[in-house]
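hey can u check if this looks right to u? its 161 residues, i copy pasted from the old doc so theres a chance i mangled smth
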Amino acid sequence: MTLLGDRVALEPISPALAHRIIARDERPDDAWHPDYPFADELDPLRSLAAETAVEQDFTMYLVRRRSDGLAVGGFGFFGPPDATGTVEFGYGLVPAARGAGLASDAVHLGLQHATECGARIALADTDLGNVASQRVLEKNGLTEIQRNQTHVFYRRALTAA
């Protein structure tokens, strides 16, 4: 199920699609930005491509810009919620798509979806120097809970609206 926001759509990535993304086997309707995927998405995509039973809700998603349908990044959960209802997520956009509110919209959609699917707590982290990503997380209600020399860690309680 594709999740629709104001500026982006989150399109679930199936194992077959993950395999094609890794192989860069782009077909006419795929519309991937030339800079997608990022190097740090390749390992999670490889894991997804190897799956036979796929978690339908807490998976990886393409981030598509709704204005032109171009896939400009990824959003993903690091698995389903644990026994406490905690789910961790990450995201990234190609440089050309940054600064237009797309990441904020993607995170909002992902957190809304996680809440609807029963998650109770969301966690994320970002590089210490990535102030833009920190602002995206804060804009979406996550608060800093810890930092070290390289990362800032965030948390948000999820409640149904």
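The beta strands are 3-4, 8-12, 60-65, 71-77, 86-93, 121-127, 143-147, 151-157.
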